[in-house]
Amino acid sequence: MRCDVLAVGTELLLGQIVDSNSAWMGEQLAAHGIDSLVQVKVGDNVGRITAMLRRMIAESDAVIVCGGLGPTHDDLTREAIAAVMGVELVVDEGVADAIRELFASRGRRMPENNLRQALVPTGAAVIAQTRGTAPGLICPVSVDGVDKVVFAVPGVPHEMFDMFERGILPELKRRSGDASVISSRTLLTWGESESGLNERLDDVIAELELAGSPTLAFLASGWNGLKVRLTAKAATLDDCNSLLDVWDARVRSELGHLVFGSDGESMESVVLDLLRSKGWSLGLAESVTGGLVGARITGVPGSSEVFRGSIVSYASEVKRSVLGVSDGPVVTESAAIEMARGARRVLGSDVALALTGVAGPAEQDGMPPGTLCVALVWPDGELSRTLRLPGLREQMRQFSVISSLDLLRRTIG
Amino acid sequence: MRCDVLAVGTELLLGQIVDSNSAWMGEQLAAHGIDSLVQVKVGDNVGRITAMLRRMIAESDAVIVCGGLGPTHDDLTREAIAAVMGVELVVDEGVADAIRELFASRGRRMPENNLRQALVPTGAAVIAQTRGTAPGLICPVSVDGVDKVVFAVPGVPHEMFDMFERGILPELKRRSGDASVISSRTLLTWGESESGLNERLDDVIAELELAGSPTLAFLASGWNGLKVRLTAKAATLDDCNSLLDVWDARVRSELGHLVFGSDGESMESVVLDLLRSKGWSLGLAESVTGGLVGARITGVPGSSEVFRGSIVSYASEVKRSVLGVSDGPVVTESAAIEMARGARRVLGSDVALALTGVAGPAEQDGMPPGTLCVALVWPDGELSRTLRLPGLREQMRQFSVISSLDLLRRTIG
Asked: Closest to B312 (Cβ–Cβ): which among A36, A43, A310?
């Protein structure tokens, strides 16, 4: 089964928007065993959309057209598909009513051109909208006597995601005769490189290659961690989940403490959950990161139950006057420990984490850029570490955030 | 002149990487008056690359092929271009020497397959590498007796940017007979919507449309501000700059204090420069933003000359114990003023900025999500404001950062 993608919109060619929709669809299609071999961008020109679509559907089993379904005169996807099908556009009264109701429910007058969105090529089926006004379309096309299909979806990502899963994927699976189900699970790791993870999982990967399912892939995600994704294909969702349970446990047992979470979690949510479970509050003393750790922590709704605050002591005098750090160099483990003790005292927290380091470009206190001293003080003890982190200023700061939160997780977890 | 783009790489179709290169090239081409009407992604398959390239060059004056120039067996762009040109690949000794020298200068052994990157179709010119190993290619192609050109550049963005400007653009301009120069300038604004800016610039836009150059475009960039870009086309760079000077001044006079900076600046760099020019240091008291303002400020190298630190007082008790905020609700202007006074005292800064608000999802102190109370204390006075910001949790926090820094800029500037 092959399904190519045609993204429509002059703004895509002009670089005003990057077409990330086709990449997303390519990833989904691949996960479901469907090839996507050609992905094209064209502008809002009905002649070019029509010619390109005609050529693409001749070479593929299916084509998804993304964008060009809006209400204005330069939204031309409907016209192009009708031309390729060789049929007329007719008003779908159900869709028209839904659009009228949507405007009425918001107490707004409906501009008449919105009814353009109710036009449907004769013979096409509608993928109902649940979030906007433009419906999706499922359009059967016969090419030299072969039954093929053209889909149309809006270019607004969250509308497209929804219609892809609800309308396109089931139709593609029906057409391919593939009744299997695909499900994936992502394990989040920190503390080892991609090649290092690969080495630790050598045996698992060899066994998975023999078994065929699930597949395993690595996905580097910066300061969100390095992801290990298992994707299982089986007859039912229950079968998928059983497979995923087995291999999830296997991967965790190989990687041990490197795994810090899974789908829907993040390093900061895991750390907050851990502290909440112990009934401990958190305080921070930040220098090199300037507030980035607190910003990440407070990005999680409900963090106020655990997080008390942060003393961002960027100037050395603030480290001394507010946190009580002794005279002398400030990029050292002993300064980090004093910062953590000071933050715990000033903020009244049970646990305190402190970071001091050199983001660059210049060195400081004789320490090169990339140096991070991190300290942790908690009800049962204290510790400090010096790390050498890669990257220029911003990457070094981001890696400081996840590395120090990971130290907290592994120490008190 | 028309120049289409062919991005090569299976990882693009699988969604492992989003193809942002073609969007960047589309933007550059448009700025130079060159149409890009079709942009395509194909995988690492020599038959498909060749067929697609043959079709694309038949319909366009030029095609840029991006990616597939690496040293491994699945880097097939060179082979595809040679097939379309109907010529052989031959080793370019100059390129081969440059690759050998690059490895030698890094003290590394050169794997033999790197010499694949020295293969050049007969008749093609080389765009020398300055950053990596794979050179770019300029390949003349005759289609039905018409002279056309195929370019090849690496998919690594910074290598591609460099070769595009140095090798591709001059060749396209030579071929189009266009000797003009294009230059642009970006003004950064905050405090008005895109439609609001449009309205204020109605007369300017009408005059620019008559004049033809420069052109004016708006570019929404989240918490980096709303950009107004002027792009001038003229015989020389000096002429461009004269035009840009005139219209830059005109736009600034219409928009007044809404303009906070231009190319190479950011809200935080502008605020830091302003404080530095006055000899004033900065302290912060953050609540709703959790450290985000300090993180932005300290992202600017050299910020330590001005920035002393931040008291991230997320818990109400910390607002009271560290900053001296009175009992009572904490999302109010009077609490914000007390936070700013407290930060100024504790951090020993000349200026202090304080933010307290509700990011949501729940309301707090009877205030709805989106409420921001901001206060500023500086050597000449104090002020506070209540703002209603749009967006969900993270967007509200980001808008809080730029809006409060903008208040500081406009107050002390």
From this structure: A310
